[in-house]
């Protein structure tokens, strides 16, 4: 592979670009039309050690899709399809690695690009945009990737490249399960913090104890229905540890709602509702409608 192309020049996309470039791995940023003519050839990256450096990137636009070797998709979930449908010239052997939050997108990407190797990943790195072209890496996390279709299985060699740059990356043939685990955490923390206008850590205040208990039970029930084997107690332990580790953060859904941006509710809570079958999920449903009502 000659070059990574990152779709989604948000905080996390730029952080991955900076970390890959720091290991001399070639990176280009695939930009949307609104950046044409307004693109900064470099962004400022603030590392975990507070060191600042200028990262110069090679911009690409949709009409240059034919030259993409490996596509890393790091947009918001609802931006993936509109962005990918503009890439008609993408070669059929270019692997597409979906690293966005939420689920339900891969099924549609498979229909639009039936021949491409498709992979999915989850990452727990934290990043923040401090200015239009200024990005801060706020937390080192773990990254998992694995195949979504048969052709994706030939791309396990991407894992060591990512591990070198990110500090951790592992390959999993059962990436769906990793995605479910992350989705379940997001389905509890994100809508609750967004609707109540609180930081993640405030979920541990006694006033949220009941709703947290009920929502985690609902989400866990749906995950079990999807074949996941974690017990409710194990799920709650993981959930509580993420709440503690990210206590001072505003969740991504909180930030989206607070800034009047669309949220990923359809790909997080919406996914849980779609897979609930006949399980009762009243809190999930109520939060879904509440986020929608607030404009998300
Ligand atoms: O992934 C997150 C998000 O905000 O989307 C969590 C883990 C909840 C951290 O804020």
From TrEMBL:
Domain Ketopantoate reductase N-terminal per the UniProt entry, residue ranges: 4-149
One Pfam match: ApbA_C
Stretches assigned to the Ketopantoate reductase C-terminal domain: 174-293
Keywords recorded for this protein, A-Z: NADP, Oxidoreductase, Pantothenate biosynthesis
GO molecular function, one term: 2-dehydropantoate 2-reductase activity
Isomerase listed as a keyword: no
UniProt keyword annotation of Metal-binding present: no
Catalytic activity, reaction form: (R)-pantoate + NADP(+) = 2-dehydropantoate + NADPH + H(+)
GO cellular component: cytoplasm
InterPro entries: 6-PGluconate_DH-like_C_sf, 6PGD_dom2, ApbA, Ketopantoate_reductase, KPA_reductase, KPR_N, NAD(P)-bd_dom_sf
Pathway: Cofactor biosynthesis; (R)-pantothenate biosynthesis; (R)-pantoate from 3-methyl-2-oxobutanoate: step 2/2
BP-aspect Gene Ontology terms: pantothenate biosynthetic process
SUPFAM superfamilies linked to this entry: 6-phosphogluconate dehydrogenase C-terminal domain-like, NAD(P)-binding Rossmann-fold domains
Enzyme Commission designation: 1.1.1.169
Entry function: Catalyzes the NADPH-dependent reduction of ketopantoate into pantoic acid.
Similarity comment: family membership: Belongs to the ketopantoate reductase family.
Alphabetical list of NCBIfam families matching this protein: apbA_panE
Name this protein carries in UniProt: 2-dehydropantoate 2-reductase
